[in-house]
Amino acid sequence: MAADALFRPFTHKSLKLKNRIVMAPMTRSFSPGGVPTPEVAAYYRRRAEAEVGLILSEGTVVARPSAKNDPNVPDFHGEQALAGWKRVIDEVHAAGGVMAPQLWHVGSARNPMTTWVAPPPVDSPSGFSSPGKKFTEPMTEEAIADTIAAFGRAAADARRLGFDAVELHGAHGYLIDQFFWEGTNQRTDAFGGATLAERSRFAAEVVKSVRAAVGPEMVVILRLSQWKQQDFKVRLAETPKEMEAWLTPLVEAGTDILHCSQRRFWEPEFEGSDLNFAGWAKKLTGKPTITVGSVGLSGEFIASFGGESSKPASLDNLLHRLERDEFDLVAVGRALLADAQWARKVREGRNHELYDFKKEALASLA
Ligand SMILES: Cc1cc2nc3c(=O)[nH]c(=O)nc-3n(C[C@H](O)[C@H](O)[C@H](O)COP(=O)(O)O)c2cc1C
């Protein structure tokens, strides 16, 4: 099946993309002391040169002491780190690319790959690392206000440096998602509550802060997931109605594009329809959406951390869904990590030249 649907242009507000392919945000931990190196810039530039429509950076953290859980994750604050990011966006633009940083705060999610511990305080809604595991104090109101402001400052810096959009990491059990999830948010103030709509308040305030910082035209993308790294089976919204109650305040706060993270994009979100998460989010909010999860690969990404290889897989199911506009954009993770040329090869029909994804690809910035 020809991949034409992937190569239609896409425009939303000031964001103009030559195709529908988005590089998924992928932590690489190649920024010593939080400063992106020239090698990091070259890694993104290679994807821009090879026709990726929109590059989302790896998660890059806002200015809170414990926003990251690995010293080699890049910061998005401080003179040196921002100078590193300026080099990244300038090189991506010189290659004709378009890019957004993914602004991140890990909250209480620790990193099993390192023994490094961030300076206190740990920021989390109720001091839980996962449901039932309380290990520290809840965030104070001051800490919450400072964190919301830190996202706004980072977004203002993204705009000043020349990035084309910003993405907020509200998925996978990190800080913003810890507020959504009742298992980790047991607050009784305005940032907690029995309903998902109430627990969306923190995310909505972050989006408002970012919107105020970037102005009306710059696109704000919000990444969300039902699943958590602490529990792959958990779901925030069990019905379309609950999903609508979750997403509506986030859109009203100023989100332009919803990035709907699944581990396998073809899995239906609710019984009785084959629409996936991005399909439902688009239907319920009317906003453009990004799908993601095992695009072009046989196996999903969590298993790949454990060493499982994935082989190139057919794009037909994805293309059918894209043709019927179930969603607007398609994020590709490991396939683009392993092969900077992935988008170009797909456009030219060179599918036999696509690579397997092997764990070894994580070891370098190829
Ligand atoms: C090495 C690696 C690092 C990742 N880091 C992030 C991250 O920083 N932020 C994020 O939202 N998702 C992250 N993810 C998830 C990816 O963005 C994507 O959702 C996932 O890999 C599924 O897409 P794929 O099957 O095409 O790889 C990461 C995935 C991988 C493989």
UniProtKB/TrEMBL annotation:
Pfam families: Oxidored_FMN (PF00724). Residues 6-352 form the NADH:flavin oxidoreductase/NADH oxidase N-terminal domain. InterPro entries: Aldolase_TIM (IPR013785), OxRdtase_FMN_N (IPR001155), Oye-like (IPR045247). Gene3D superfamilies: Aldolase class I (3.20.20.70). It comes from the Bacteria. This is NADH:flavin oxidoreductase. It comes from Archangium minus.
